[in-house]
Amino acid sequence: MANVLNNEEMQALRNYVQGPSSQNRASSTVLLHVSHSNLKMKFFELRLDMHMTIEQLKVKLSFHVGTNASAQVLQLKDDSGRVIAPFMEDHHKLGYYSPHDGFYIHIIDMDPNSASANGWLEDTDLVDKYKMSDDDYNKRENTYRKFKEAKLKEDPTWTLQKEMAKKKGQPLPQQKEKQADPDFLAAEAASCTVGSRASVEPGDRRCEIMFVGRDVAGLPLGWWVGVRYDEPLGKSDGTAGGQRYFQCSPGYGGFVRPDKVKVGDYPPIDDGLSDGLSEGDEI
Predict the structure, then answer these.
(1) Rg of the chain (C-alpha set)
(2) What DSSP assignment string belongs to 112-169?
(3) Could you read off the pLDDT of 142-165 as tens digits, one per residue?
């Protein structure tokens, strides 16, 4: 079951109860874990004053766990989980039980109608969630959907990334042009032949050319070169868009634009790994 608090919230709570520095705390304080009979999550290192009474401690804990002070039975456990005090009495002070840093205060919730029972404070799946229909959503004003529609009418290339960059005064993200020419880079592809050794930029990635062609499934129009790298520097096994164009081991294949391929006497090398790839240049 999911916790009510995520990691960041738990850390914030920890920082709050610890104060500015646990190293500079008063000698009369102790850092104790807290567990609860109905809850899986634990509050780590609550800073507690040894001079507070158990009754005062229960009131403090009620704000953390949702169990009324009158319904709490407190036990003290050592850092191994062994019960030191099975019943901490209200009139005693916390220091009476000689707790040490790292010990546990375990809360037994005696309220059968407690809000923490059966996971109601932790499992959000138990809470009925309202789901709005598309029709109801479309009737609402000032929604993101209507905002997006209005922006797209003004600028068909609008994106949320562009909008955020504009508001922050940052350069607009570059939009890649859709390739409409089926013979794009045909001249460069003419110098690439199947079986030739080559180097792919960036990174001088040595390879063997396995395929030269256009209309590669899932890729923009134009010419592509299928390569089998000497090292696992690729993103493919010789397939693209569910179709196979050549055979190679997974991670050794790639489809790159011809202008990224240099044909020549390129013996295999063991270095030159690079991940300076531009999205859209290859798969």
Answers:
(1) 32
(2) TT-TTGGGTTT-GGGS------HHHHHHSSS-HHHHHHHHHHH-TT--HHHHHHHHHT
(3) 888 888 888 888 888 888 888 888
Answer yes or no: is pLDDT of 82 > 70. yes
From the CB of residue 253, how many other CB atoms can be counted at a distance below 10 Å?
27
Looking at the structure of the chain, the number of domains it has is: 2
Alpha-carbon distance of 253 to 229, in angstroms, equals: 6
Q: Give me the percent of the chain exceeding a pLDDT of 70.
A: 76
Q: Is residue 56 part of a domain?
A: yes
Q: What is the CATH number of the domain that holds 108?
A: 3.10.20.90
Question: E strand or H helix at 75, and its extent?
Answer: strand 72-77
- Length of the chain equals 283
Mean pLDDT computed over 167-193:
82
Q: Residue 178: beta bridge partners? A: none
Token pair of 80, please?
């191994």
Checking if the pLDDT of 245 tops 90, the result is yes
Question: Model confidence over 182-196: pLDDT tens digits?
Answer: 999 999 999 999 999
Going by C-alpha positions, the residue among 269, 276, 176 that lies closest to residue 229 is 269
The answer to the question of residue 74 being in a domain is yes
| Angle (CA) 211 214 217, round 5° | 90
Residue-number span of the structural domain to which 222 is assigned: 186-263
273: in domain: no
Nearest to 9 by CA among 41, 52, 37, 53: 41
For residue 5, what are its two tokens? Answer: 């608090």
Classify residue 163: in a domain, yes or no: no
